[in-house]
Hints:
By secondary structure, the chain is mostly helical. Helices cover 66% and strands 0% of the residues.
Amino acid sequence: MLLSWLIRRDTAPEPDPMSLMQSYIQTDNPAYLALLIHRYGDDLYHFLLKQTDPALAADLSQQSWLKVMEQKQQFAGHSSFKTWLFAIGRHLLLDEYRKQQRWLYEVNDELAAEDSSPEQVLEQQQKELQLQQLLLLLPLLQREALLLQLEGFSLQQIAQITVTEPETVKSRLRYARQALAKQLGGHDE
Length: 189
């Protein structure tokens, strides 16, 4: 601690996503978009990956960022940038499902654990796989609401993303939790 005055701290605080987006809208400078992609790209991809296969998740993630570029003027700031971005990703996913006429997901058999994993890691992977498979059994709208909540969105933000009322989101979350509890052998809430 004595030498802490010698260590120069040039690290500026991370810019606010709203100001990054506003700067991108005003200047069209791709550096601002790159910062947003760096901050939210993985989150968006993982949200989509939990609902589809890796190739489609990557494709939809890229399409989402293209939509951000194309529709940047439509960002009004009424919600957080992440909420707006996830709404774009969700709409693209639903459009893809409509094209494929696929409203139920298939279980991904590629989630097998490595043979060389320690016992605890294997057990954790099995639990994650079981949860993933149980999530896939939920109806689309319940699964979507639960995954958005697990991403850290509030009820109000989930309602904005899914274009529904907060009470509808609460119901979907309640039914999703009840279904998962029933499948896991727990008690209903």
